[in-house]
Design brief:
six-stranded antiparallel sheet, single chain, Pdz3 Domain, two-stranded antiparallel ribbon, 2 helices, globular, mainly beta
Length: 97
């Protein structure tokens, strides 16, 4: 679960993230944060996040680390978060409320 200062980003609860490993096949094609795991029946699963997804931007701001993801998502004043996700060579756009 993504956390900043002990606070959970509720919309991402049930997901585990990591910085994109240097040996990842998408490295060089895309920068972002890897979704390592998504628990069934979690808020993250309800969003449609899947293990293996790469979050490339949050609220139109590129992310290259878990810290970027947390900082930008937590800065959302209205609680709405827009995600750009790279999945199987295609980019998806998801709104999170």
């Amino acid at each position: 679960t993504a956390r900043v200062d002990g606070r959970t980003i509720a919309q991402f609860e049930g997901a585990t993230f990591s910085n994109l490993p240097a040996d990842h096949p998408a490295r060089g094609k895309v920068k972002g944060v890897l979704v390592e795991r998504v628990e069934r029946a979690s808020p993250a699963a309800a969003l449609g996040l899947r293990a293996g997804d790469i979050i490339t931007a949050v609220n139109r701001q590129p992310v290259s680390s878990v810290g970027d993801l947390e900082r930008i998502a937590n800065a959302s004043k209205d609680g709405v978060i827009a995600l750009n996700i790279w999945r199987d060579g295609s980019e998806l756009f998801v709104f999170v409320r």
